[in-house]
Amino acid sequence: MNDGRNGNKNSKEKQLDAFKVDDKGKKLTTNQGLKVSEDEFSLKAGDRGPTLMEDFHFREKLTHFDHERIPERVVHARGFAVHGEFQLYENMSKYTRAKFLQDTSVKTPVFVRFSTVNGSRGSADTVRDARGFATKFYTEEGNYDLVGNNIPVFFIQDAIKFPDVVHAFKPEPDNDIPQASTAHDTFWDFVANNQESAHMIMWIMSDRAIPRSFRMMEGFGVHTFRFVNEQGKAHFVKFHWKPMLGTHSFVWDEAHELAGIDPDFHRNDLWNAIENGHYPEFELGVQILNEEDEFKLGIDILDATKLWPEEDIPVQIIGKMTLNRNVDNFHAETEQAAFHLGNVVPGIDFTNDPLLQGRLFSYLDTQLIRLGGPNFHEIPINRPVVPFHNNQREGYHRQTINVGKVNYHRNSLAGNTPAPASEEEGGYVSYQEKVEGRKIRARSKSFTDHFSQATLFWNSMSPTEKKHIINAFSFELGKVKSMSVRQQIVDMYANVSLDLARAFSKKIGAAPPKTGGSNVTKASPALSQENTIFTPSTRKVAVILTNGFNGPEVKYVLERFQASGLMPEIISENQGEVKGRNGVTFNVKHTFLTAKSVQFDAVYIVNGSNTSKKFNKDAVYFIDEAFSHYKPIGATHEGIQFLTINGYDGKQGVVTGYDIRSFPDEFVKAVSLHRHWDRKII
């Protein structure tokens, strides 16, 4: 990889370098450094005799192998992570004393882990699911973890119900089916009987749950947090990550197909983008609310099933994160990364959101069982870039060698050190919120509105997005065996939208609701992906051509594609080289055996084969599938015949190159629009 950053490493990279080992060219040793003379045969009593217990090398090697796997995360098991850096646009000291949010010249190292929530480590990337978006900032005041999702709300309001919702969406316990899917009875039974999930389900049934790429999805902190400034004044805050490439998604059919032919699609996409120097960028935004305005939105801001409409509380963009380096070792970095909402820095504090309060316990507790004890913070990827000093000692996998007698506070033998730091010295001081009340197991009445923001979301969708939501409900509930559960969901969503409930009730054989509906008419345009950024940058184009193509003209077209940010990849009859006229050749990356249309954003067909009927047939199928997924299609030269034969010529998003000079710009414009939803599928 050439990331252009050699010799300009940040503090975290330098720290991790100390732990890196390159075994190339080295002699084989045990973990104690003893050189090994034989690694093919165990020590035996005779060449056909039993293996001897004294074979320390055999026992060390097998013991390590037997313990190589650590328990996978209960949720967010399938993850992929990268390194990067964050730089602030403007000084935020008016709101927070967090140093990394004050100095615009500082580049703070970050480590970001993307994930699916539901499936196991072996599941596919493109399943319908929420996506984790966890960011670890290695700041000069210690690690700060912003642990969020690509959806701004959650299923439940109180963390005591977290085991219940996870048990419900995981595979059913009697047969462990289905994997990485909520299309089953127990999940929808939970939804019907825990109607606080109504809003989150709308997001899960929308296109947001099948993102085109980790690089093309938003991130949200979900909870309401606090900023606290030097004067002790607090503001409520919500965090947003805005992708510079826009927010885009698959259609359900191609997400399904990709799960089979390329289950690592999102991983490949992110890894290859960084290896090729196309560094993903996300802008950090904050919504800030004065404490005195806590109730002005008409919702309880401590309710994690609610969002703050961006039209009411604008998102202020304050910085940019650039992801520019892949990990060196998946297990050591991605798999052993430990995130925790309790990893904060001065100037960032919590609220009484009952889901947030529970996560503050659960995340720390989870790391203890996953990573073998209390010293997981010493694993290189989790270490802060600043030194740590305390009286914690021993435990599994302790790496720090603490010197001296004292391991307690208070003391006189070490001058009462390590000593607490004052607030002026950078010590963390919790916000002094006044708290009073009777001990009670209850939920505030302000948490009882479960449907208004689900309706807000529905009202904000484009006609295409609404159609996809109806189809998603129809698919998921169509897999539910219990007719009672199906009917309960129909009746539940009649409170969100009668049109929605009636539409999917017909598909699943349930009785359409006669009453219901909502008086919420408000919409939030920011919730629709129709209003996102559209750019051709890093879009993959399948280029179909065979020998004998017009070399100079096709070379001109592909160069124009690349100049605009498109990434063309050649598909031909055989891998190797494909030769055109005037000595122009291209490297062939794919055949129709190794590539499918769902792996590309667009198709450009140049010509077919005069000798291979199979190639022509495969090309037609490839184009048909791309057309059915509303993708842009372009053709020049002999390739135009494929469009005219199928009746695609002149359809929305179909660009023909009768004028080779204007064709590239027209095609790039079509690709930048992502999909062409008004196209009539034949």
Automatic annotation (TrEMBL):
Q: What InterPro entries does UniProt report for this protein, alphabetically?
A: Catalase (IPR018028), Catalase_AS (IPR024708), Catalase_clade2 (IPR024712), Catalase_clade2_helical (IPR043156), Catalase_core (IPR011614), Catalase_haem_BS (IPR002226), Catalase_immune_responsive (IPR010582), Catalase_large_C (IPR041399)
The alphabetized list of GO BP terms reads:
hydrogen peroxide catabolic process; response to oxidative stress
Q: What catalytic reaction does the record list?
A: 2 H2O2 = O2 + 2 H2O
Q: What organism is this sequence from?
A: Oceanobacillus chungangensis
Region annotation (Disordered) maps to 1-22
Q: What is this protein called?
A: Catalase
Q: Where is this cross-link: 3'-histidyl-3-tyrosine (His-Tyr)?
A: 340-363
Active site, renumbered: 76, 149
